[in-house]
Amino acid sequence: MQVRHTKGGRRGFAALSAALCSLLLLAGTMSMPAQAQEDDPAAAVTTESTAMLDVEQQPALPGLGAYIDGTIEAQMALEDIQSVTVSVVKDGELLFAKGYGMQDISEGIPVSPETSLFRIGSTSKLFTWLSVMQLVEQGKLDLDTNVNEYLDFDIPATYEEPITLSHILSHTAGFEDGGLGYLIQYYPNKGPELAEAMAKYIPARVNPPGEVSSYSNYATALAGLIVQNVSGVPFNDYVEQNIFQPLGMKYASFDEPLPPELEPFMTRGYKRELGVWEKQPFEMINSFGPAGAVSASAVAMAKFMQANLNNGELNGNRILSEETMKQAHSLLFTADERVNGMAHGFYEKDYNGYRVVGHGGDTMQFHTDMAVDKENNLGIFVSYMTTVSNAARNNFVGQIYDHFYPRDVEPVEPPADFADRAGKYAGKWTFWRRNVSTIEKMFGLMSNGIDVIPTEENTLLVTGPFAVRQFVEVGENLFRQVDGDEQIVFTSRSGEGLDTFYFESLPFMAMQRMPTFETSLFKYLLPGLALLLFLHSVVSWFYKRKDYKTRPAASKALTYNTLWMSIVHLAFVVLLAVVILGFADSLYSGIPFLLKAALVLPLVAIVLTVIALIGYVKRLTSGDENFSVGRRIYYALLVLSGIYMCYFYYYWNMLGWDYFS
Questions:
Q1: What does DSSP assign to residue 214?
Q2: Does 259 sit behind a cis peptide bond, omega within 30 degrees of 0 on the bond before it?
């Protein structure tokens, strides 16, 4: 599954942000039996024999093995990576395949590129897309037909135009994002099966289909269900029979848990706990399996890349016709023809001027990338076992191109008159890939969005999702990175001003202008000030409680009304942070009862805020001479803070548990 790129929030929600940033998606615990090693020579591959697959003398890319060795070893040391597997194919041959680190630390089994299985996350989607294209080729599916025609339930008709497979393949179906409580389980737990999950977890539709590309795990899994329904074969079996077996991908499977014959070859997931590697349970996403459940070896993925490069054929076995495979790799959607876009499920990237199609993938434990370059007849696959970050996989393919296919970046001078139009690009932007209808909307609190800021050098400063970069105008609404190849483009969906923004390297992640209430003022500053006032109210009572008890009844009532209001507001925020931190590793597999219980507090806070407001109005209109101007202002600020926080909870879907899917 793909990672959300966000920028951290501020102090008021620091605990919440830190926990939620670690969540995403998608490994077994049994070691390989001795008998299996004896029966299957491939199962006993050593580090030395693994390295023999590195054919450094290949004239195509001389020195490839040494370069990859140096790159991977540096990444493993610097980013605390436990194990890696790599394969490179070129001109129809397996050019390089190697494993690094250990498949199983406790059993002392090194990674084998031929047999060691890695979880490839959303790279699995490519098998789903090609399964769809197989059925299109057979005339059993049509890319432009309402998907409800292929389902036993209906996707709600939120918009007049129905969702089609073309929309799903290009991530333009218009679904919101979602996954809290159901996206991932851990062995031996399993979620509902694919068909049940698709009917149960239908996300809200937030955009008309075909307008913007916004990554959707649900839509991909839905495509897998359609393959299952139309073919009459369970999805996992369909891919096994129609892709894995024809290509000889013996060490690849969608099954969770793995079948007995493959389970001993699973690269174990590890996480540092108290400074040492601790084995983690196998990640289970069977409910959304077509979106990211594959376990595969590097050599198996090399065969898949060869079939893609050879237009659907490998060793005399064909999974797609040449025409259909070319269609699968062809452009289906782009926000602007001058930048990369979405092919038929594959996404385009540009590496030093070469068009590459492929897909990355991330689980909680593994991070993967696969790239296919038809012009150079080159395919690159890499997968890392690490729970630290996905930075290594994001950079690996680009490093290969920079070394073997370098290109000088020609500087571009900013237009002298750019300042005259810079303002129309400036502002806060946020990804469409987010949730709006459930409790998961609160994840937006961890994102401060992306700032686009005009500079005195007539460039645009863009703060994320990568490192801060500057872009220079190279065409109408088109910008190129000052010191690189990345491009950004601004478009208009409504026809009334620029309202959509894409990074060329993320053609499946459209952005919109950030809603006003989600900007820092309303999301961090005002809630922070409100919490400080609540805290002051509680602390003041603690130090002045004896004095408060001697005050007149009206004064005492207002004091205690605002005190209880403040306590409940503070208690909710603190408890929410504690729950998120305490259950950070399991929030995508289930909703803890404590979180549901915590969400009762905002309802209580509303009642207490109304009581405090009534009490304040009564005292303000009572003509009480002891109600000084200073106290009037203080209690007014307290009550207004309570009112604001009640709306805050409402906006971020924190009022009770009805917002859970």
A1: B
A2: no
pLDDT above 70 (res 136): yes
**Length of the chain as a residue count:** 661
Residue 290 contacts residue 128 (beta carbons within 8 Å): yes
Q: How does pLDDT run across 236-269, given as a tens digit for each residue? A: 999 999 999 999 999 999 999 999 999 999 999 9
Spatial separation of the C-alpha atoms in residues 452 and 423, rounded to whole Å: 10
Is 311 in contact with 326 (CB distance < 8 Å)? Answer: yes
Cβ density class 57-72: b for 16+ within 10 Å, e for less? ebeebeebbebbbebb
Query: Got the DSSP string for 330-374?
Result: S--B-SSTTS--B-SSSEEEEETTEEEEEEEEE-SSEEEEEEEET
Residue listed under structure tokens 């999950």: 197
Tell me phi and psi for residue 425, to 5 degrees. -100, -20
Q: What is the pLDDT of residues 427-451, one digit of tens each?
A: 999 999 999 999 889 888 888 899 9
Whether a cis peptide bond, with omega within 30° of 0, leads into 281 is: no
CB 238 within 8 A of CB 230: no
Amino acid residing at 589: S
Question: Minimal CA–CA distance to 637: which of 562, 547, 545, 561?
Answer: 562
290 closest CA partner among 198, 385, 372: 198
Q: What is the pLDDT of residue 189?
A: 86
DSSP 400-458: HHHHHS--PPPP-PPPTTGGGTGGGT-EEEEES-S-SSSGGGGGGGG---EEEEE-TTS
Q: Which of 384, 308, 366 is nearest to 129 (CA)?
A: 308
Q: Is the separation of the CB atoms in 300 and 124 below 8 Å? A: no
Instruction: With cut-offs at 50, 70 and 90, classify the pLDDT of residue 596.
Output: confident
Helix axes 217-231, 125-137, angle to 10 degrees: 40
Q: Is 649 strand, coil or helix? A: helix
Pairing relationship of beta strands 93-104 and 460-462 according to DSSP bridges: unpaired
Return d(Cα 338, Cα 318) in angstroms, integer: 33
pLDDT digits (tens, 9 = 90+) for 193-212: 999 999 999 999 999 999 99
Quick check: pTM over 0.90? no
Tokens (6 digits) for 435:
């949730």
